[in-house]
Amino acid sequence: MTDRIDESVDYLKSRGFGEPEVGIILGTGLGQLLDDVEIEKEVSYNHIPYFPTATVEFHKGKLIFGSLEGKKVVIMQGRFHLYEGYSLFDVTYPVRVMKRLGMKRLLVSNASGAINLNFGKGELMLIEDHINLQGGSPLAFHGVEKLGERFVDMSEPYNKEMNDIFEVAAKKHDITLHKGVYASVLGPQLETRAEYRYLKMIGADAVGMSTVPEVIVANHLHIPVAAISVITDQGDPSNLEKVDIQDILANAAKAEPSMVKLFKELLQQV
Length: 270
Description:
- It is a single chain.
- By secondary structure, this protein is an alpha/beta fold.
- It has one domain: 3-Layer(aba) Sandwich (Rossmann fold).
- The chain has six helices and nine strands, in the order αββββαββαβαβαβα.
- The protein has a five-stranded mixed β-barrel.
- β7, α4 and β8 form a beta-alpha-beta unit.
- The radius of gyration is 17 Å and the shape is globular.
- The relative contact order is 0.20.
- The model has no long low-confidence stretch (mean pLDDT 94).
């Protein structure tokens, strides 16, 4: 495992990747942030040794190194999911590589469906806590102790300092930023009416198919992490609409400028 990570890192360094201060994972339909990045190097995932390959058509599949708001950043343009057939180790492998490159903080974005119907389409939710419903852990494998301690505290998985900066920035820019609990499910199918009712009962405010494994590994590596969900649809069991992926992507695009402002504001202050 450590040899594989080293080989991935050595390859990226040979391609001109330097030491990033901040890592950023861009979720479904969320790529506008790259318009503000001074890109120095980029590599397709399928060229990096041992990296998975993005199979979702709206995930670009590139690792990018550059500068944003005076900070060196490494950006995942597209992520990996369990529903693509990957293991939890595969899904979180890039986080371990970015850490070995030098990443000190991690920012995560995703598209999610609202369980809390006070959250509107195209609005943002700051993740305060999560519920892991993916049926496994990215730390449950033989030899995990070679990469960090086995039993990881998760009493505060999302960094309070960064969350506070996001909240102040949202007020400054007059951006609606809800706070809530994100439930991560396996997918790729969307939820049934009964499943939406269940998610509400257990305390979820939004549901998606990513993020939680990456956050667990960030905590395993002692990397402060913060995450924002873009609300792209609503899971109202009493009035459940059929899934329209184009509508989901349109709502993600609608919310992106606000998310970009928050990410840039945070980078200025950390």
